[in-house]
Amino acid sequence: MSVSINRLQGYLRNSAGERYHTVSIPPFTLFFHPTDRFPHFNYAIPDEPITGDVQEQLRALRNEFAVRGCQPRFEFLDEYAPGLASALRAAGFVEEARQHLMICTPESFKAPPEVKGMTVTVVDAAAPLSAVQAYVTVQRQGFDPANITPVTEDEAQGFRTTLQAGAAFLARLDTTPVAVAMLMNPLDGVTELAGVATLAAYRQRGIASALTAYAVKRAFAQGVQVACLTAGDAAAGRVYERAGFYPYATMLAYHVPVAPEPAVE
Hints:
Number of helices: 7
CATH class of the largest domain: Alpha Beta
Distance between the termini: 62 Å
């Protein structure tokens, strides 16, 4: 299946619009989390390929981020807006990340080897709170093993309210929660797999690949045509390749560096 870059960038833009507050500064749309200033939750995406001088618009964009107390930041597909990176550098942005956007279609899908004793629970808006707490706990410790803060019922309830047409997936090995993944709300036949994490003690067992395959196979059965994700590095990419994902585009992230705190005499 041929998948256009415009379709993928459009999906990422529209998906962000479902989750965040938006501000339009053509040719850019800015997305802001309603409560969290964490940089990865606040960023801009181009509305169209960039032609001509956009420095005035970038100054206005930087000001909008500053007013909201957020770090100016972009996430976009290089193939969609190949002229944007140089314009950002001229405006004081620096490259933060250059990663593969990978896609999987029903034709490329692969079933990796089964993991003995692994079961998967779908965590959606109707899931019991105990399952949501287990999901958030594994997600938290999968990305930050040192974070052993218990997940409260209020935190779990807050997370559950974010689950709309998408779904989260909790993998257990025997009865122990060990890995998580999430599919974002599908739009125009496209969905994004995000937040894949495995507890440190259970890595290198094929669990993440098996969970990825479970999630995207379920999405395809529900009519999704393309699943995409951003691989953090080559090792992560190999995990997803076992389920049929392959590199398709280049995801770039740019930000304005935060000025260092002045030294205290």
